[in-house]
Design goal:
The chain is α/β, with parallel strands linked by helices. It has a single domain, classed as Vaccinia Virus protein VP39 (Rossmann fold). A 7-stranded mixed β-sheet has the order 3-2-1-4-5-7-6, with helices on both faces. α5 runs parallel beside α6. It binds S-adenosylmethionine. The site of S-adenosylmethionine (SAM) has 23 residues, from α2 and β2.
């Protein structure tokens, strides 16, 4: 199973409708649509991306659904997460998804970067509700992704285990550069 599919399967029984969630890397809107289907019309989804095309693609993907009103598209880096999320939602976020790397079918030079990714993860962990889940799909198969994956891995291992528990899902039969998934749960 691909890491992105696994992330969906780990989240799908955690959302029941009406939650506030974040897609930290909107891309082509697949994750945003997945989340929107789970939280329904009474939920709120914040979706970040630094590329106009990604914002457009995500808008188009949700436009034809009943959930468009739930979507708050943010054309900005996820490292601005704290200031971009309504204060009333701080500490109430049920799920945050990071699918790192570059936009498939887009400009591969525009990719998530280790410094801003770590800043966004740190802010996201503060914003999560108790029992909230963060998933991070890492792609060590390209140069920036390799450095980013190593630093994300190190960051997660240093988290306070009284506050967060984490699991790492990696396909040991695949090459050393295969994508992997981290799931963090806030205690
Ligand atoms: C692998 S794609 C995401 C796929 C997406 N979740 C989907 O379901 O289609 C990674 C995305 O991260 C975006 N990105 C890069 N740097 C970012 C940043 N600092 N903040 C938010 N998004 C960023 C890229 O523009 C790209 O669209």
């Amino acid at each position: 199973m691909k890491s992105t599919q696994l992330a969906h399967s780990l989240i799908s029984d955690k959302l029941f409708g009406g939650e506030v969630v974040i897609d930290a890397t909107a891309g082509n809107g697949h994750d945003a649509l997945f989340l929107a289907n789970l939280i329904g019309v009474s939920g709120t989804i914040y979706a970040f991306d630094v590329q106009k095309d990604a914002i457009k693609n995500t808008r188009l993907k949700l436009q034809e659904t009943d959930y468009f009103e739930s979507l708050r598209l943010i054309y900005s880096g996820h490292e601005k997460m704290r200031e971009s999320i309504s204060a009333e939602h701080h500490g109430r976020i049920a799920v945050i998804m990071f699918n790192l790397g570059y936009l498939p079918g887009g400009d591969h030079s525009i990719t998530t970067l280790k410094e801003t990714t770590l800043e966004a993860i740190s802010q996201g962990l503060e914003l999560l509700a108790p029992e909230g889940i963060m998933t991070i799909v890492c792609y060590p198969g390209h140069k920036e992704g390799k450095n980013e994956s190593i630093l994300v891995d190190e960051y997660i291992k240093k988290m306070d285990s009284n506050k967060f528990e984490f699991c790492k899902y990696i396909n040991e039969t695949a090459s050393g550069n295969a994508p992997f998934l981290i799931k963090i749960k806030k205690q």
